[in-house]
Amino acid sequence: MTKIAVLGAGSWGTALANTAAENGHDVRLWTHNTDQAEEINTQHTNTKYLPQAKLIDKLMATSNMALAVSDVEIVLSVVPTKAVREVAKQLGEVLKKQSHTVILAHATKGLEQGTYKRISEMLAEEVPALYRSALVVVSGPSHAEDVIKHDLTAVSIASSDESAARLLQKVLSNNTFRAYTNDDLLGSELFAALKNIVAIGSGALIGLGYGANAQAALLTRSLVEMRALGLAMGAKEKTLYELAGIGDLIVTGMSPNSRNYRAGLGLGQGKTLEQVESDMGMVIEGVNTTKAVYDFAQDYKVDMPITVAIYQVLYENKPIREAISDLMGRPLKSED
Ligand SMILES: NC(=O)C1=CN([C@@H]2O[C@H](COP(=O)(O)OP(=O)(O)OC[C@H]3O[C@@H](n4cnc5c(N)ncnc54)[C@H](O)[C@@H]3O)[C@@H](O)[C@H]2O)C=CC1
Ligand SMILES: O=C(CO)COP(=O)(O)O
User: Fold this and answer.
1) Residue 48: exposed, middle, or buried by beta-carbon count in 10 A (0-12, 13-18, 19+)?
2) Could you identify the atom of ligand 2 that is nearest to the CA of residue 12?
3) Low-confidence stretches of the chain (pLDDT beneath 70)
4) What number does the ligand 2 atom closest to the CA of 196 have?
5) What per-residue confidence (pLDDT) applies to 336?
6) DSSP structure class, residue 245
7) How confident is the model at residue 52, as a pLDDT?
8) Hey, which end of the chain has fewer CB within 10 Å, N or C?
9) How many Å apart are CA 179 and CA 155, to the nearest integer?
10) Are 225 and 302 a contacting pair, CB within 8 Å?
11) φ/ψ (deg, to 5) at 5
């Protein structure tokens, strides 16, 4: 039995914590919301984030971070990108007082605004190296709503520390949830963030009434720009064709369970970004990631026409049909 703290009781943190608890591990789910901790401990539900789900009774939630991480081997952070630094700072303070070392994992899919840092870079800056033995990312095609129902799921667990990735793999895997290890932390984090941009575009196509041809074209052509940026930043090309790359691109670009896809769907149906964001009540990572990638792709001199088109729709009020027409009207070229 492994002791593990999961930080963040949104839909994904709750589903991962529940999976590890079902696998027989000692799981402490930390939330900054005391009412939510109370609901999880007494009702075994998390109605705001996973409305239909019944959680395993022994899943323990707490709003006390020191209690959550006391003597755990693994801390798995699953908060939205914008909360990563704040939560990691608190974690750093707690670990300093407890003076013990943890495997520091995360399952967040985004990039920091302004700095364009990956999540593990933020974690490494906020949690002193003395208190962490490894940095790990849990990624791949995995909607919380499906995982909590025990729908078949495969994920990717990446780290430069193979034994740390293997421990996470063992803690999370069971006969409906299969984790693979991977050694490309950078590529896994980067592709996880990039696919959210594409999912907004894919939802928008369906919202406008286009079909599977259009979606297949978008997802496939997006691979070209994900590959170009990935290679420029040091990702391994093979990661793009694995679970953290194309796997996640497929599920987020096609599933109505995706918040990014649903945001795009709403935009395609004529809603404003503000409406879409307030209706969702959950994080839509791709909106901020689009801005981050739009800004730094120029520094890397990588041509990302799909990302630029989605940026123009989200941030410059360009009508979606006009953005599509401009993309379709680009000079004809070869595929690569
Ligand atoms: N929902 C899913 O199926 C999946 C989500 N992810 C990623 O996991 C991350 C979290 O996503 P979700 O669980 O969907 O988010 P969510 O919107 O369902 O929940 C976010 C949680 O973070 C908490 N939170 C927000 N700000 C906070 C702060 N400053 N301090 C402490 N807690 C704070 C909220 O109270 C909430 O419990 C995102 O990066 C997302 O891309 C990855 C794979 C699957
Ligand atoms: O990353 C995800 C599935 O693998 C979740 O995507 P959404 O945040 O769009 O729901």
Assistant:
1) middle
2) 5
3) none
4) 9
5) 79
6) I
7) 86
8) C
9) 5
10) yes
11) -105, 135
**Mean pLDDT in the chain?**
97
- From the CA of 256, which ligand is nearest? 2
CA 203 – ligand 2 centroid, Å:
13
Assigned superfamily of 193-328 = N-(1-d-carboxylethyl)-l-norvaline Dehydrogenase; domain 2 (1.10.1040.10)
For residue range 262-317, what is the model confidence (pLDDT) as tens digits? 999 999 999 999 999 999 988 899 999 999 999 989 889 999 999 999 999 999 99
| CA distance linking residue 13 with residue 76, whole number of Å | 8
Q: What's the one-letter identity of residue 186? A: L
pLDDT of the residue at 100: 87
Atom 28 of ligand 1: nearest residue by CA position: 83
pLDDT given at position 99: 84
Ligand 2 lining (C-beta closer than 6 Å): 109, 141-143, 196, 199, 248, 251-252, 258-260, 285
Task: Give the model's pLDDT for residue 281.
Answer: 87
**What CATH number does domain 3-183 carry, 3.40.50.720, 3.40.50.300, 3.90.1150.10, 3.40.630.30?**
3.40.50.720
What ipTM, to 2 d.p.? 0.99
- Rounded to whole angstroms, how far apart are CA atoms 296 and 304? 11
In testing the pocket of ligand 2, which one of 219, 251, 287, 288 has its CB within 8 Å of the most ligand atoms? 251
Binding residues for sn-glycerol 3-phosphate: 109, 140, 142, 195, 248, 258-260
Ligand 1 pocket, mutate which of 283, 284, 285 (most atoms under 8 A from CB): 283
pTM of the model: 0.98
**Which residue positions form the known binding site?**
8-13, 32, 49, 109, 140, 142, 144, 195, 248, 258-260, 283, 285
